[in-house]
Amino acid sequence: MYSIKKTERVYEPISSFYNLVEHFAGFGDRIAYRYFVDGGKNLAEMTYGEFAAMVRDEAAGLSALGLAGRRVAVIGETSPEWVATFLAIVTSGGVAVPMDKELAIPEIEGLLASAEIEGIVYSPTFAHKFDGAIASHPSLKFFVPMKPADDELIDEKVIPLAKIMEAGKANAGYTPAPPTDLNRLTVMLFTSGTTGTSKCVMLSEKNMVTAINGGCEAVNFTPDDTVVSVLPIHHTYELSHGMFSAMNYGMVVCINDSLKHVLKNFKLFRPTGLVLVPLFVNTMYQRIMKEAEKTGKKRKLRVGMKISRFLRHLKIDVRKKLFRDVQEAFGGRLVKIISGGAPLNPKMCDEFFEFGIQISEGYGITECSPLISVNPYFAAKDYSVGPAIPGCRARIELDGRILPPGETGEIVVSGDNVMLGYYHNDEANAAVFTEDGWFRTGDMGHMDEDGYIYITGRCKSVIVLENGKNVFPEEIEEYLANVEGVKESVAVGRKAEGSDEIILTAIVVPDFDAFPKGATDEEIYKVLHERIVAMNKKLASFKQVRALEIRREEFPKTTSRKIRRHLIH
After folding, report:
1. Can you give the pLDDT at residue 195?
2. Of 51, 58, 53, the residue nearest 34 (C-alpha)
3. What is the C-alpha to C-alpha distance for residues 412 and 193, in angstroms, rounded to an integer?
4. Is residue 135 helix, strand or coil?
5. What pLDDT score does 462 carry?
6. How far apart, in whole angstroms, are the C-alpha atoms of residue 270 and residue 262?
7. Which pLDDT value is given to residue 194?
8. What pLDDT was estimated at residue 237?
9. Is-contact 381 446, C-beta < 8 A?
10. Can you list the pairs that 474-480 forms with residues at least 24 positions away whose Cβ atoms lie under 8 Å?
11. Strand order of the sheet with strand 421-422?
């Protein structure tokens, strides 16, 4: 792992969302957003001053129409309107409920009823989808289309966002008040996770503010940076760090309009930094290598990486010159990536650093708003997700004992970033908090003497072998990710036929482009099996993959691109 010189942090910590909007107003004519309009045909820009005014008008409108202080969901694609709505809800005393736009409508309506949500603001892609809810939903009392369809019903329940904004502009004397209670319920989030059972996480304003400030403090961003918002905005990772931490610096946030266009949009927006999940990092790397192979430059690229590494030891940095083509694929200015949301293959950090792009891996969970730790860019350690952010503490426990550095157990945390609890779920709350109030993350790992956290795997996904040995599938999947021809993989424990023996099995989605056109599953299996046998030599005997299954379809994933393990059989 490579580190770079620590830079001065140029940002002002926030005390509340009200304070964050004050910061935006203070940035005035700086560009806040670049985004697509007219169905992706044109680009628009919005300044921080204009965005702050949008938040203020919407908050004033909610107050004028008697809708302030309610629990209000917001759903749709990332847009200035989505973000302004979130901030308007919370700064006018309400509870914001970000929703996953990929969920089925009956599931959305069921979740909103379970948490007694009173209103929903939705993008044009949801036109008419809530018609049934307008007629009979048990808790939703008002519906706010951001831009109503021409034939959309407008009545006392359906209030277009434009009407709220008009009421806000007319309510000229309205000023959002600074919060008097930072511990009040401010955000409700439904976890998708990989367990298949959604819980409603309750976050306070203090929880979110702690994570936002922690993100600003821990990563190597500056007010001069440009980022592209790629991940789903309803996730706290993107909302807190891809959006609010970036905007608290006064950075330019460009909004990607489609995953199909993401590489094209990198070239268009020319980001200097990105906030991503490992799936995107891996995809970017595979594109680099495929393009090099396609153009006959793969060997030249590898040789260049060795030369660059040698020269840097002599304090000579030629990466910009050597890897100009790689850089141009991302707009020519990309120098830093924050990766989180799932385990990152450590190889990616070294490989991207050779291209002149530093990856810092973070660790978090929705229940912690979501940030727990970040591997610091100026003092990075291999395989670590770094020490806990300011305002958060971490320790390692096993069977009620607090473990010393180096020993593996469950990662538990405490701090101002930890949730208030799960909504109406006493059983889950009792299970997830220790007797002294620390939050059980469900992740296994250890810490070193410096407080750096090293994640081993998820408690629930541990494969227990017949000999009692525990295997963490994430570790095996890291090795499988480095096997040529493997696109995705999941390690599982299969019972051997006719016995209770557990066979460590790799379910692999091949990278079919890496094999000759028309290769059969049998031919692909044979090649991958030989490569996995070779991989096994790097692993302890009990961690070696004993069986291989080929899968043609990609694994089912959450909208944050985590594989849904519970659906894999």
Report:
1. 37
2. 51
3. 18
4. helix
5. 80
6. 11
7. 41
8. 94
9. no
10. 474/343, 475/543, 476/504, 476/506, 476/539, 476/543, 476/545, 477/343, 478/343, 478/345, 478/346, 479/535, 479/538, 479/539, 480/506, 480/508, 480/532, 480/535, 480/545
11. 142-145, 119-122, 71-75, 95-98, 185-190, 200-204, 421-422
Which of 216, 214, 238, 242 has its CA nearest to residue 227? 242
Locate tokens 């660059």: which residue? 308
Contacts (Cβ under 8 Å, ≥6 apart) of 154: 148, 160
What's the CA dihedral at 263, 265, 268, 274 to 10 degrees?
-80
How far is the C-alpha of 489 from the C-alpha of 548, rounded, in Å?
Answer: 10
Q: How far apart are CA 388 and CA 224, in angstroms?
A: 26
- Closest-CA residue to 99 (of 195, 239, 204): 239
For residue 531 the two structure tokens come to 């490569």
**Side chain identity at 25, as an amino acid letter?**
A
The phi and psi torsions of 357 (rounded to 5 degrees) equal -120, 115
The more confident residue out of 176 and 221 is 221
Q: What is the chain's alpha carbon radius of gyration, rounded to the nearest angstrom?
A: 24
**Strand pairing of 226-229 and 252-255?**
parallel
Q: Are 161 and 147 in contact (CB under 8 A)?
A: yes
Q: What's the average model confidence in pLDDT over 398-427?
A: 96
Sheet holding 31-37, edge to edge: 42-47, 31-37, 252-255, 226-229, 273-276, 336-339, 358-364, 371-374
pLDDT for 501 equals 81
pLDDT recorded at residue 197? 57
Residue 209, phi-psi category: left (phi > 0), alpha (psi -120 to 50), beta (remainder)? alpha
